[in-house]
Amino acid sequence: MLSRLPKNLGLRIQLILTLFVLLTATPIGLLWYHSSEQVRLQTVEKLYRYSSQTIQAQLDDFFAEARLVYQHQQRIIDQLPDIIKDRDQLLSHLENVLNHHFNIDYYYFGNNQGGLLSLGQGDDRSFIMFESDNNQAGPLTSYKNKLDGEAIKVIGKTKHYDARERDWYQRALQTDQAIWSDIYPGAIDRNMLGITLSKVLRDKNGVVLGVWGVDLTLSRVIRELQLAKPSPNSTVALLNSNGDILASSNPKHGPRQGKLINVLSERAPILNQIWPSVRTKKPNQESVIESFDFDGEPWLNFHSSYPLGKNRSVSIVFYSPESDLTKDILEAKDYAIIITILMTTLAIYFGSAATKYILTPIRKLTRATEQISQGKWTHKIQLDRDDEVGQLARSFNHMTTNLEATITQLDTQKQETERLNVLLEKQNLKLEERVRARTEELSALNARLRQLANFDPLTGIANRRHFWEMFANRVESKHGWLLILDIDDFKQLNDAYGHMTGDLALQHFTQCCTACLGENDFMGRIGGEEFAIWSEAQTIEAIQELTEIIFDNMNSSPLHSVGNQIHLTASIGGTDCFPGKVNAYAIADKMLYQAKQTGKNRAVIDCSSIPDKPA
Q1: Residue 238's pLDDT band (boundaries 50, 70, 90)?
Q2: Are 470 and 599 part of one and the same domain?
């Protein structure tokens, strides 16, 4: 065979092709096989990191929302001592905060006599209220009140409760800043655990009046852990430095009789096995994926830290059966190896066959082609073969006799091609028209999406976010006025006529106001019955005239609903705005409060900071 190799072109090509395929496919296959394990772990680690970042982002949102409550509380800090003395004012303040901070579960105040008034958001559009009898330490009762006005009903009671004995109360007394408590059970439901951001309230003389508390229940965190699981059989858990399971996507890890389950419990055998690795990890140390065996099955785990404050943090722990996350990758690797081997074999086989059948008669076909290229159409190829090459030789022999027919056929095909090109051009025009129509439809849909994102669906004016965006753009370069409007006695209107009439009142109020605005003025809905207006009026007289026009328009245009004629009134607070002024909303809100306190249905405008105009 070796002696025939220099003279046998087909054998040389077959051998070279085989060596080329083997030298190319084998290193690639080996390299891919050995690197697949590293790729597999990197893929799983990215999945764990993404889930960990998702949970940390949710915790950031929860904690930032709690701190935001106390930041907003600063604007009415002088009013708080009076608010806590009136039970109805305090309850209204708690309800208002919950309506504006949806990630907060409970908001409450414990006074210096041990009494508690707490308001929380239920899971069925209701408020959960806890209230001490006689506003002091003693019996504590919980109530449920539907948002649609259904009567309050008692859902629980405890014989004695003293807010001053609670961990969140005691921690708040140690500092004037908001501080996180440890995990603790609920006052009535001992299996409902939560964490509190509390802040002390003192009078002007430094005497403690009580402590505010903002609660995040762990049931909300557990729901987020369920959503962050990287696979159906994965578990996500939050652990403190003592190994207590603060929250977990596994129901077996839930608290029992108000006490947290520890990793050493028989309910958490896997956490018990990986706890030493979690405990020894430093907060700033890079997190990596780790493998371990449990009950003869390979598992993967990943853990990271989340800070709660100075020298306080929790661990976020993931663990999953390895088969859950890598089964598809391993199967894909096996299939890829099989396909690589199969394709290599097929390439060698078909390459060898093609070489054998084509190269043998190539010289005869080359000479015949040269004769035909010189115009010798009658030249015949002498080649006796029954395979594809033999068929090619017979086709060459028929070529001269069929040349005229072939040319005629080519002309016909040319005409058909031209006809098809014309038809194709028409189809392209139709397609362009459909694309243009679809583009217009998408533009309309995008406009509708922008409308839904920027405008209140009930009143049609700018929503809270869009109004403050437009306000920020205007106040950077122009002088104007910010008006905060609140419909008087809107809750009584809802109670008397129902929520449908309340919605009609909001729409009617919006129409009355927008009809009075100038060309460059705009209005937005920033709360339930709270609205805001930006006006480019130049003087205080002009802005006062605008408020009078609004009052006159509401007085002369009553709301007609189900046979009733309803006259709406509103209180307005306002302040001037100019570039560099940062507290416009707080001032206007304070003016609104003064309007409410001095009889409602009036406007109070602050103009103390109007910048001097150049002479």
Answers
A1: confident
A2: yes
Domain identity same for 482 and 571 = yes
Last residue of a domain, one of 309, 324, 339: 324
Alpha helix ranges (H) inside 456-598: 464-475, 490-497, 499-514, 540-556, 584-597
Residue 163 resides in a domain: no
Helix (H) or strand (E) holding 194: strand 193-202
Task: Please state, in angstroms and rounded to a whole number, the distance separating the CA atoms of residues 368 and 371.
Answer: 5
Phi, psi of 491 (to 5 degrees): -65, -40
21-51, pLDDT tens digit by residue? 666 766 666 665 555 556 666 677 776 777 7
Largest Cα–Cα distance in the chain? 122
Same domain, 278 and 378: no
Q: 119 near 98, Cβ under 8 Å? A: yes
Do residues 575 and 591 lie in contact, with contact meaning Cβ atoms separated by under 8 Å? yes
What is the distance of C-alpha 530 from the center of its chain? 27
Evaluate whether residue 391 is within a structural domain.
yes
pLDDT of residue 615: 32
CA 354, CA 348: separation in Å to the nearest integer?
10
Residues 277 and 378 in one domain: no
Please report whether residue 115 resides in a domain.
no
Q: Are 566 and 505 part of one and the same domain?
A: yes
The pLDDT of residue 275 is: 86
Range of the domain at 375: 362-401
Lowest mean pLDDT among 10-14, 58-62, 223-227: 10-14
What total of structural domains would you count in the chain? 3
Question: In 3D, which of 402, 362, 397, 398 has the Cα closest to residue 382?
Answer: 397
Which CATH number is 265's domain given? 3.30.450.20
Confidence of residue 546 (pLDDT cuts 50, 70, 90): very high
Question: Among the three residues 324, 348, 381, which one is the final residue of a domain in this structure?
Answer: 324
Q: Say whether both 509 and 602 belong to one domain.
A: yes
Render pLDDT for 83-125 as a digit per residue (tens, 0 to 9): 988 999 998 898 888 888 877 888 899 999 999 999 887 766 6
pLDDT, tens only, 147-166: 554 546 777 888 899 999 98
Query: What is the spatial distance between Cα 222 and Cα 249, in angstroms, rounded to a whole number?
Result: 6
**Residue 7 forms part of a structural domain:** no
Question: pLDDT higher for 377 or 103?
Answer: 103
Residue 483 reports pLDDT greater than 90: yes
DSSP state letters, 304-324 = EEEEEETTEEEEEEEEEEHHH
The tokens for 223 are 């729901």
What is the four-CA torsion angle of 505, 506, 509, 513, rounded to 10 degrees? -170
Helix (H, G, I), strand (E, B) or coil at 459: coil
User: How buried is 533 (Cβ within 10 angstroms: 0-12 exposed, 13-18 middle, 19+ buried)?
Assistant: buried
Do 580 and 475 lie in a common domain? yes
* DSSP letter for each residue of 225-262: HHHT-SSTT-EEEEE-TT-BEEEESSGGGS-BTTBPPB
CA 504/CA 507 separation, integer angstroms: 5
Say yes or no: 383 and 299 in one domain.
Answer: no
Contact 288, 45 (CB under 8 A): yes
User: CATH code at 576?
Assistant: 3.30.70.270
